[in-house]
UniProtKB/TrEMBL annotation:
The chain crosses the membrane at residues 28-46, 53-73, 79-100. Residues 135-150 have a biased composition (Basic and acidic residues). Residues 117-126 have a biased composition (Polar residues). This is FxsA family protein. The keyword Membrane applies. Residues 117-150 are annotated as: Disordered.
């Protein structure tokens, strides 16, 4: 745990050192262009993936069998976009690793229970129509007479 905290504190220095190393090898202008292009690429990735990732997570949670892998899988593109927006070569390298086409979870492996899809009024599996019977009564809220507005 202590080693992880030390690496977390040293991470910004590694990022700055990687930018200086890149500027030394390809030039300051090209390094600045790299940082600007990676920032805009990251913002485009985050903008395009936020709704799709959230809908996939909601569908996975609604299915009932939630594992950490299935929850974090759709967020990899959003995390890659965030890492691309951070200036530095290490964060860009981690973002590119996240963007590689790793095989995700297959839908057959998720064991999602299949609900029978029937139109209203059709016979279900148990032979009865999909109608819920019940009674209701509308109740008006009662307020004291002195509390009415005039």
């Amino acid at each position: 745990m202590r080693g992880f905290l030390i690496l977390l504190l040293l991470y910004p220095f590694f990022e700055i050192y990687s930018l200086f190393w890149l500027a030394d090898h390809i030039g300051g202008g090209w390094t600045l262009a790299w940082v600007i292009v990676s920032f805009f690429a990251g913002s485009l990735l985050m903008r395009g993936s936020k709704l799709g990732g959230l809908l996939t997570i909601a569908g996975t949670m609604r299915a009932g069998n939630v594992s950490l892998f299935t929850l974090l899988w759709p967020l990899r593109i959003m995390l890659a976009g965030l890492l691309l927006m951070i200036p530095g070569l290490l964060s860009d390298l981690f973002a590119l690793l996240l963007l590689l086409p790793w095989p995700g979870p297959k839908l057959a492996d998720l064991n999602i229970p299949q609900a029978p899809f029937s139109q209203p009024g059709q016979q279900g599996d148990n032979g009865s129509a999909d109608i819920i019977e019940g009674e209701y009564e509308r109740v008006e809220p009662r307020t004291p007479q002195d509390r009415h507005l005039r």
